[in-house]
Design brief:
65% of the residues lie in helices and 8% in strands. The chain contains six helices and three strands. The chain has a three-stranded antiparallel beta sheet. A hairpin with a 7-residue loop joins strand 2 (77-81) and strand 3. It starts with 5 loop residues before the first helix and ends in a 13-residue tail after the last helix.
Length: 156
Amino acid sequence: MRQPKIFYLMQKAHSALFRAADRFLGEEVGLTSSQHAVLLILVKRDGLPISAIAKELNMGKSSLTGLIDRMSKKGLVSRQQSAADARSFEIHIEDHGRQLVKATLPGTKRINSDILATFSAQEQSTIEKFLEHLANNADDIVATQSLKNPQERKVK
């Protein structure tokens, strides 16, 4: 049996899913999927520093800073100086951000259900385990592999 091209299929699925999500969220509520993800995190744990949100989303801190700036201009979040560390800022969800999460949560749940609809409960558990494994170990998985054949590698 031939092994599936997981790396390629993950890229293809990620691009298709997030392009569709960005289009839908943009048309419905004026959000990107990344902005939506930040709001979902802040609804559960408001007042996180940017570094914690970046870690949760596996995003670069500088990319997230620009995203937070744009969200702040839209009135979705606010940035407040941390009481514990004056050099740090906490990100807080604003009422408008909460309203958008409340409005989009049923659709998000439906999308999750639709993605998994054709899989048994056991398969869904395996998919969850697989995706968690990738999210938690991507650097180690990729770092242990070379994309070149041993004969083509340059010696440093």
